[in-house]
User: What shape does this take?
Amino acid sequence: MKPLRVAVAGLGTVGAGVITLLHDNAATVAARAGRPIAVTAVSARDRGRDRGIPLAGLRWYEDAAALALDPDVDVIVEAIGGTTGSAPALVRAALAAGKPVVTANKALLAEHGAELAALAAERGVTLAYEAAVAGGIPAIKAVREGLAANDLTRIVGILNGTCNYILTQMRARGIEFAEALAEAQRLGYAEADPAFDVDGIDAAHKLAILAALAFARPVDFAAVHIEGIRGISALDIRLAEELGYRIKLLGIAARTQDGIDTRMHPAMVPATHPIARVDGVFNAVMAEGDFVGRVVLEGRGAGAGPTASAVVADLIDIARGRVTPVWGVEAALLSAAPSVPIDARVGPYYLRLMVVDRPGVIADVTATLRDHAISLESMLQRGRSPGEAVPVVITTHDCEERAMRAAMARIAGMEAVLEPPALIRIEHL
Amino acid sequence: MKPLRVAVAGLGTVGAGVITLLHDNAATVAARAGRPIAVTAVSARDRGRDRGIPLAGLRWYEDAAALALDPDVDVIVEAIGGTTGSAPALVRAALAAGKPVVTANKALLAEHGAELAALAAERGVTLAYEAAVAGGIPAIKAVREGLAANDLTRIVGILNGTCNYILTQMRARGIEFAEALAEAQRLGYAEADPAFDVDGIDAAHKLAILAALAFARPVDFAAVHIEGIRGISALDIRLAEELGYRIKLLGIAARTQDGIDTRMHPAMVPATHPIARVDGVFNAVMAEGDFVGRVVLEGRGAGAGPTASAVVADLIDIARGRVTPVWGVEAALLSAAPSVPIDARVGPYYLRLMVVDRPGVIADVTATLRDHAISLESMLQRGRSPGEAVPVVITTHDCEERAMRAAMARIAGMEAVLEPPALIRIEHL
Assistant: This one.
């Protein structure tokens, strides 16, 4: 049967992984796809570099966008990365030329996905992105097809392996963030500039994409509230443990009465929940549907192998003619549900203060919480050290974020409160 | 757009659940499917019974197979169950008439799936069965499409919620099998006649199906080695715990040098592994691929809601025209890999004996193991009670099942060994 002819743009980890997989597993892929999948053209900047992959006989383009016009290319794999320059230029050119695109570029999809999906719909062309979210876990397929019969209520994800590795190490060994980060960098689990990962941006890109397909609305990255893990201390991880929780960088996309709530922040989750058990560089996606209940998927969220597995799964779908709209429904049926601001979040909180151990401090703190209509679930002063700093840990019943923040601002300004309080949301999954 | 017209045969839990979902989530389903999915005909025995579902206006057939000939039916949902009588008659009639079939009938697929898949291939018709394995978990889609780029090495599953519930209760509360079973029956988690579940047959049906699509060969239920959980004691669960293991009824399908190994039996798995943490009525499927690594899916394995979620996901695929061969590849490409007998299993074992506490017994037991070339990893006599019965626990290094069984037969025959030894395979996942 006629092979599906693929052009791979970008020969970094992802592009090279895809070429390696298509080479190593050619027979399996052909059987699953119903026909061979053959790479016929590539694009990358430095032609001379040895990438350890078989490139002989492939057409080479300096300009990635030119791949879209090659008449012997049926599908484009965009593995360039980035939100400006040649990646978006190639994707637009390919969709405009009526050629399906497979991309692992979460940043591009999160920031320009609404426009690109509209272009794909207009041209009736597939824009596939299984590899953009949770690496090798078939999360896009599971949510968009496998659970398609459900009204989904919530998606919760551990979507960044670097952060999960750091938090896992901090807990397992009682070390601080800076030490865990340095080690992750030494091991290659974190970049030299870790901001994109540890500040939650990469994970938020993926969450925005999951929210779009879970709730069938155009991706809206700007609506995601984002906090990273730099502020998490070994002390809070230890105290969480004592309270029966684990701290995870959690992405949450939920349907509420007022619209779609999307947020990425450290959260305390019950230690017995499957999500709390996902450790190290693994990712997980939990979906809740009205008929299916809770489904949890776990696997490797990054790396050449898992990413190539996801990219080629998309190619196999294309080879078989299995087509799904970008956000799961036709453009005309996309929802216009508004986004809910973080201020409207309702739930319990963990609040940890360092206070001077002297009479009256606790009374002042609790009075402030009362004034904001926040009711306490527990209050614990750790140890006694008159006149010195001691940690005070408070957990609350459900309250509104805006009330909690207002109370926090007052508490942080108290003379007896010695450093900025730690505030971590508790999520009962 | 033209609705997809569905006939539902069988109005028990599954059939009624499907009709309820298609009614309650009609708008979501239509959006995801690209067109409405409408039930137009049903079949069940007792027309008079109130099933609490909307049946007005639907054509009613006494004879399920007649649904296949209704010109106003596009797709058949077979929710009758059973491997003889009207279920297989309907599936055959529908496929012969060129109508896609969606079934939740694992027994039918496991026992007659090879023939039915061949008929579906011959007619070019879809035979879909997401609901047959692991209920609401999109395991079929994940393995057959999501991980399609991989050479899969192994599938491991917790595939029967009744058994998992019983084992979870036995561990959590230290109770014996009989008590846990009686309670599961009271709560509706186990049938009055529990044999199908607790003897491992239901789970083995699902494993046979997973093995077929993981390794792209016609389903071969007869090749599955099956042991249930009746022989598991509270003592062995407690001892497993002390050794760092949990006992689960595990389905394993693995590619070995000699062919495909498929077996369903209680196994000890490391307590820290995600599979060990799947408790209660939940199911899980772990797949290992050469590029993706390990992926674990967890969710509800049974019940009206999860099963309907899976059935309707299949209907949505059909409505969208997304087609996949039954075992993932065209009939001509199916593998003829042989099945490996359980005798050839190589791995560690847990052996627990009740022996008379007197000098020389342990020496006799260990000499017998040595004579069968089985090397010990650990040996532990629990407590001392001269002249009385005490448990002796042995764990071995990797050895062959046939050697272990031969040694066991000799050991069981020793005068000082007081009851049939417990032998449980240890699986390092």
The longest helix of chain A spans residues 106-123. The mean pLDDT of chain A is 96. Chain A has three domains: 4-132, 139-301+333-341, 345-426.
